[in-house]
UniProtKB/TrEMBL annotation:
It comes from Benzoatithermus flavus. PANTHER family: LIPID KINASE YEGS (PTHR12358:SF106), SPHINGOSINE KINASE (PTHR12358). The keyword Lipid biosynthesis applies. This is Lipid kinase. SMART domains: DAGKc. Pfam families: DAGK_cat, YegS_C. Residues 1-128 form the DAGKc domain. It is an enzyme of class 2 (transferase). Its cofactor is Mg(2+). InterPro entries: ATP-NAD_kinase_N, Diacylglycerol/lipid_kinase, Diacylglycerol_kinase_cat_dom, Lipid_Phosphate_FormReg, NAD/diacylglycerol_kinase_sf, YegS/DAGK_C.
Protein backbone atom coordinates (compact mmCIF):
# COMPACT_ATOMS: atom_id res chain seq x y z
CA UNK A 1 0.00 0.00 0.00
CA UNK A 2 1.46 3.36 -1.04
CA UNK A 3 2.05 5.98 1.64
CA UNK A 4 -0.49 8.77 2.09
CA UNK A 5 0.12 11.82 -0.04
CA UNK A 6 -0.28 15.09 1.87
CA UNK A 7 -0.73 18.59 0.53
CA UNK A 8 0.70 20.99 3.15
CA UNK A 9 -0.38 24.60 2.64
CA UNK A 10 1.22 27.30 4.81
CA UNK A 11 -0.30 30.77 4.89
CA UNK A 12 2.83 32.91 5.10
CA UNK A 13 0.79 35.94 6.24
CA UNK A 14 -0.67 34.25 9.32
CA UNK A 15 0.83 35.33 12.66
CA UNK A 16 3.44 32.54 12.76
CA UNK A 17 3.29 31.72 9.06
CA UNK A 18 6.84 32.93 8.48
CA UNK A 19 8.20 30.51 11.09
CA UNK A 20 10.31 27.56 10.05
CA UNK A 21 8.06 24.47 9.88
CA UNK A 22 10.76 22.13 8.57
CA UNK A 23 10.60 19.97 11.71
CA UNK A 24 6.84 19.52 11.35
CA UNK A 25 7.22 18.54 7.69
CA UNK A 26 9.92 16.04 8.67
CA UNK A 27 7.50 14.42 11.14
CA UNK A 28 5.08 13.83 8.27
CA UNK A 29 7.75 12.57 5.87
CA UNK A 30 9.35 10.28 8.44
CA UNK A 31 6.02 8.46 8.78
CA UNK A 32 6.21 7.53 5.09
CA UNK A 33 4.00 10.28 3.73
CA UNK A 34 4.75 11.92 0.42
CA UNK A 35 4.55 15.65 1.17
CA UNK A 36 3.87 18.45 -1.28
CA UNK A 37 4.46 21.69 0.64
CA UNK A 38 3.32 25.11 -0.57
CA UNK A 39 3.88 28.46 1.12
CA UNK A 40 1.26 30.96 -0.04
CA UNK A 41 0.90 34.69 0.53
CA UNK A 42 -2.86 34.87 1.04
CA UNK A 43 -5.73 32.78 2.46
CA UNK A 44 -7.51 33.33 -0.87
CA UNK A 45 -4.90 31.14 -2.59
CA UNK A 46 -5.54 28.25 -0.19
CA UNK A 47 -8.86 27.21 -1.73
CA UNK A 48 -7.43 27.23 -5.25
CA UNK A 49 -4.43 25.12 -4.18
CA UNK A 50 -6.65 22.45 -2.62
CA UNK A 51 -8.89 22.21 -5.67
CA UNK A 52 -5.92 22.14 -8.05
CA UNK A 53 -4.22 19.22 -6.24
CA UNK A 54 -7.33 17.30 -5.17
CA UNK A 55 -6.61 14.29 -7.41
CA UNK A 56 -2.96 14.10 -6.36
CA UNK A 57 -3.30 13.89 -2.57
CA UNK A 58 -5.15 11.98 0.13
CA UNK A 59 -5.21 14.68 2.82
CA UNK A 60 -4.64 18.38 3.36
CA UNK A 61 -2.59 19.91 6.18
CA UNK A 62 -3.09 23.65 6.63
CA UNK A 63 -0.73 25.91 8.52
CA UNK A 64 -2.42 29.14 9.56
CA UNK A 65 -5.07 30.62 11.79
CA UNK A 66 -8.85 30.50 11.83
CA UNK A 67 -9.10 32.83 8.83
CA UNK A 68 -6.96 30.45 6.79
CA UNK A 69 -9.12 27.48 7.82
CA UNK A 70 -12.20 29.49 6.87
CA UNK A 71 -10.74 30.19 3.42
CA UNK A 72 -10.23 26.44 2.92
CA UNK A 73 -13.68 25.33 4.08
CA UNK A 74 -15.44 25.36 0.69
CA UNK A 75 -12.65 23.38 -0.98
CA UNK A 76 -12.50 20.84 1.86
CA UNK A 77 -16.26 20.33 1.68
CA UNK A 78 -16.19 19.97 -2.11
CA UNK A 79 -13.23 17.58 -2.27
CA UNK A 80 -13.96 15.50 0.82
CA UNK A 81 -10.28 15.54 1.77
CA UNK A 82 -9.54 15.17 5.51
CA UNK A 83 -7.94 18.15 7.26
CA UNK A 84 -4.85 18.31 9.45
CA UNK A 85 -4.04 21.55 11.29
CA UNK A 86 -0.78 23.29 12.11
CA UNK A 87 -1.91 26.21 14.34
CA UNK A 88 0.02 29.25 13.14
CA UNK A 89 -2.54 32.02 13.64
CA UNK A 90 -3.52 34.47 16.36
CA UNK A 91 -6.52 32.86 18.07
CA UNK A 92 -6.37 29.27 16.69
CA UNK A 93 -9.87 28.56 18.03
CA UNK A 94 -10.53 25.60 15.73
CA UNK A 95 -7.32 23.93 16.93
CA UNK A 96 -8.33 24.72 20.51
CA UNK A 97 -11.74 23.08 20.19
CA UNK A 98 -10.10 19.98 18.67
CA UNK A 99 -7.41 19.85 21.41
CA UNK A 100 -4.62 20.28 18.87
CA UNK A 101 -1.49 21.68 20.57
CA UNK A 102 -0.01 25.00 19.40
CA UNK A 103 3.41 23.48 18.69
CA UNK A 104 3.52 22.59 14.95
CA UNK A 105 5.64 19.48 15.55
CA UNK A 106 3.17 18.11 18.11
CA UNK A 107 0.31 19.00 15.77
CA UNK A 108 1.99 17.14 12.91
CA UNK A 109 2.26 14.03 15.09
CA UNK A 110 -1.53 14.07 15.49
CA UNK A 111 -1.86 13.83 11.70
CA UNK A 112 0.60 10.94 11.65
CA UNK A 113 -1.33 9.03 14.33
CA UNK A 114 -4.31 9.30 12.00
CA UNK A 115 -7.24 9.52 14.40
CA UNK A 116 -10.13 11.30 12.69
CA UNK A 117 -13.45 12.79 13.71
CA UNK A 118 -16.27 14.37 11.77
CA UNK A 119 -17.31 17.91 12.65
CA UNK A 120 -20.10 20.25 11.67
CA UNK A 121 -19.77 23.42 9.62
CA UNK A 122 -21.89 26.52 9.95
CA UNK A 123 -23.15 28.53 7.00
CA UNK A 124 -23.96 32.26 7.04
CA UNK A 125 -25.84 33.03 3.82
CA UNK A 126 -23.45 31.44 1.31
CA UNK A 127 -20.31 31.57 3.51
CA UNK A 128 -19.09 28.59 5.54
CA UNK A 129 -17.55 28.91 9.00
CA UNK A 130 -16.01 26.59 11.58
CA UNK A 131 -16.28 28.50 14.84
CA UNK A 132 -18.31 31.68 14.96
CA UNK A 133 -20.21 34.30 12.99
CA UNK A 134 -20.80 37.71 14.55
CA UNK A 135 -22.29 41.09 13.80
CA UNK A 136 -21.80 44.27 15.76
CA UNK A 137 -18.84 44.57 18.11
CA UNK A 138 -16.73 41.62 16.90
CA UNK A 139 -17.24 42.57 13.26
CA UNK A 140 -16.06 46.09 14.08
CA UNK A 141 -13.03 44.57 15.80
CA UNK A 142 -12.23 42.50 12.72
CA UNK A 143 -12.42 45.58 10.50
CA UNK A 144 -10.28 47.69 12.85
CA UNK A 145 -7.63 45.06 13.67
CA UNK A 146 -4.34 45.65 11.89
CA UNK A 147 -1.93 42.86 11.02
CA UNK A 148 1.00 44.47 12.86
CA UNK A 149 -0.90 44.51 16.18
CA UNK A 150 -1.97 40.88 15.73
CA UNK A 151 1.58 39.76 14.99
CA UNK A 152 3.03 41.65 17.94
CA UNK A 153 0.44 40.98 20.64
CA UNK A 154 -1.40 37.80 19.56
CA UNK A 155 -4.79 37.30 21.24
CA UNK A 156 -4.17 40.41 23.37
CA UNK A 157 -4.61 42.43 20.17
CA UNK A 158 -8.40 42.05 20.54
CA UNK A 159 -8.41 43.87 23.90
CA UNK A 160 -6.02 46.54 22.62
CA UNK A 161 -8.20 47.22 19.57
CA UNK A 162 -11.39 47.23 21.66
CA UNK A 163 -9.92 49.87 23.96
CA UNK A 164 -9.19 51.98 20.88
CA UNK A 165 -12.55 51.72 19.08
CA UNK A 166 -15.01 51.40 21.98
CA UNK A 167 -18.26 49.40 22.10
CA UNK A 168 -19.99 51.14 19.21
CA UNK A 169 -23.65 51.98 18.63
CA UNK A 170 -26.38 49.42 19.40
CA UNK A 171 -28.67 48.07 16.69
CA UNK A 172 -32.14 46.50 16.63
CA UNK A 173 -32.54 42.93 15.39
CA UNK A 174 -35.25 40.33 14.89
CA UNK A 175 -34.07 36.76 15.49
CA UNK A 176 -36.10 33.83 14.17
CA UNK A 177 -35.80 30.08 14.63
CA UNK A 178 -38.29 27.43 13.63
CA UNK A 179 -40.17 27.83 16.92
CA UNK A 180 -39.73 31.41 18.13
CA UNK A 181 -39.16 35.05 17.18
CA UNK A 182 -37.26 37.44 19.45
CA UNK A 183 -36.68 41.20 19.06
CA UNK A 184 -33.50 42.58 20.66
CA UNK A 185 -31.45 45.74 20.95
CA UNK A 186 -27.83 44.63 20.93
CA UNK A 187 -24.21 45.66 20.56
CA UNK A 188 -23.27 42.17 19.38
CA UNK A 189 -24.94 39.01 18.11
CA UNK A 190 -22.83 35.87 17.83
CA UNK A 191 -23.80 32.52 16.30
CA UNK A 192 -21.46 29.67 17.14
CA UNK A 193 -20.93 26.32 15.46
CA UNK A 194 -17.80 25.50 17.46
CA UNK A 195 -17.08 26.07 21.14
CA UNK A 196 -14.54 28.92 21.13
CA UNK A 197 -13.93 32.31 19.55
CA UNK A 198 -11.65 35.29 20.13
CA UNK A 199 -8.76 33.22 21.46
CA UNK A 200 -10.62 30.99 23.92
CA UNK A 201 -13.91 32.75 24.75
CA UNK A 202 -16.61 30.10 25.10
CA UNK A 203 -19.52 30.54 22.67
CA UNK A 204 -21.90 28.69 24.98
CA UNK A 205 -21.17 26.38 27.88
CA UNK A 206 -22.98 23.48 26.12
CA UNK A 207 -21.68 24.12 22.60
CA UNK A 208 -19.74 21.44 20.71
CA UNK A 209 -18.51 21.41 17.13
CA UNK A 210 -20.34 18.15 16.42
CA UNK A 211 -23.68 18.72 18.21
CA UNK A 212 -25.50 19.63 14.95
CA UNK A 213 -26.74 22.87 16.52
CA UNK A 214 -26.03 26.58 16.38
CA UNK A 215 -25.76 28.54 19.63
CA UNK A 216 -26.69 32.24 19.51
CA UNK A 217 -26.19 34.96 22.07
CA UNK A 218 -27.20 38.60 21.74
CA UNK A 219 -25.45 41.06 24.02
CA UNK A 220 -27.66 44.02 24.92
CA UNK A 221 -26.11 47.48 25.47
CA UNK A 222 -23.79 47.62 28.48
CA UNK A 223 -21.40 50.19 29.83
CA UNK A 224 -17.72 49.19 29.80
CA UNK A 225 -17.91 48.82 33.60
CA UNK A 226 -20.95 46.50 33.37
CA UNK A 227 -19.19 44.37 30.77
CA UNK A 228 -16.09 44.14 32.91
CA UNK A 229 -18.15 42.89 35.87
CA UNK A 230 -19.82 40.23 33.71
CA UNK A 231 -16.66 39.23 31.88
CA UNK A 232 -15.98 36.03 33.90
CA UNK A 233 -19.38 34.61 32.90
CA UNK A 234 -19.09 35.80 29.30
CA UNK A 235 -15.67 34.17 28.91
CA UNK A 236 -17.06 30.83 30.15
CA UNK A 237 -20.12 30.94 27.92
CA UNK A 238 -22.59 31.15 30.79
CA UNK A 239 -24.73 33.68 28.95
CA UNK A 240 -28.10 32.41 30.17
CA UNK A 241 -27.08 33.32 33.72
CA UNK A 242 -26.41 36.97 32.81
CA UNK A 243 -29.02 39.72 32.73
CA UNK A 244 -28.96 41.53 29.39
CA UNK A 245 -27.95 38.53 27.29
CA UNK A 246 -30.43 36.68 25.06
CA UNK A 247 -29.61 33.06 24.09
CA UNK A 248 -31.11 30.69 21.51
CA UNK A 249 -30.17 27.24 20.23
CA UNK A 250 -31.41 25.81 16.92
CA UNK A 251 -30.16 24.13 13.71
CA UNK A 252 -31.24 27.17 11.65
CA UNK A 253 -31.49 30.85 12.63
CA UNK A 254 -32.39 34.03 10.76
CA UNK A 255 -31.19 37.48 11.87
CA UNK A 256 -32.65 40.68 10.43
CA UNK A 257 -31.23 44.06 11.51
CA UNK A 258 -32.52 47.63 11.27
CA UNK A 259 -29.57 48.51 9.03
CA UNK A 260 -27.26 46.37 6.94
CA UNK A 261 -24.37 45.13 9.07
CA UNK A 262 -21.22 43.25 8.05
CA UNK A 263 -20.94 39.67 9.31
CA UNK A 264 -17.62 38.32 10.54
CA UNK A 265 -17.05 34.59 10.02
CA UNK A 266 -13.99 33.08 11.76
CA UNK A 267 -12.33 36.49 11.95
CA UNK A 268 -13.00 37.62 8.36
CA UNK A 269 -15.73 39.94 7.05
CA UNK A 270 -17.47 37.76 4.46
CA UNK A 271 -21.20 38.62 4.25
CA UNK A 272 -23.83 40.96 5.69
CA UNK A 273 -27.30 41.07 7.22
CA UNK A 274 -30.00 39.94 6.71
CA UNK A 275 -28.36 36.57 7.32
CA UNK A 276 -29.64 33.00 7.28
CA UNK A 277 -27.62 30.60 9.43
CA UNK A 278 -27.67 26.83 9.02
CA UNK A 279 -25.56 23.94 10.26
CA UNK A 280 -24.08 21.23 8.01
CA UNK A 281 -23.86 18.12 10.22
CA UNK A 282 -20.65 16.05 10.09
CA UNK A 283 -19.57 18.00 7.04
CA UNK A 284 -15.81 17.36 7.05
CA UNK A 285 -13.28 15.02 8.58
CA UNK A 286 -10.38 16.31 10.70
CA UNK A 287 -7.33 14.77 12.34
CA UNK A 288 -7.65 15.22 16.09
CA UNK A 289 -6.63 13.47 19.31
CA UNK A 290 -8.79 10.50 20.24
Amino acid sequence: MRPHRALVVINARSRRGSNDVTAALEVLRSSGMEVLALRLDSPVEVEAAIREHRALVDLVVIGGGDGTMNAAAEALLATGLPLGILPLGTANDLARVLAIPPDPVAAARIVVVGKRRRIDLGRANDKLFFNIATMGLSARLARAMDRRTKRRFGALAYAITLARIGLGQPFHATIRTGSETVAVKAIQIAVGNGRYHGGGIVVHEEAAIDDQLLHLYALEPHSPWQLLRKLPWLLRGRHSAIAGVVTLTAPAIDVLTDRMLPVNTDGELTTHTPVHFTVLPQAIEVFAPA
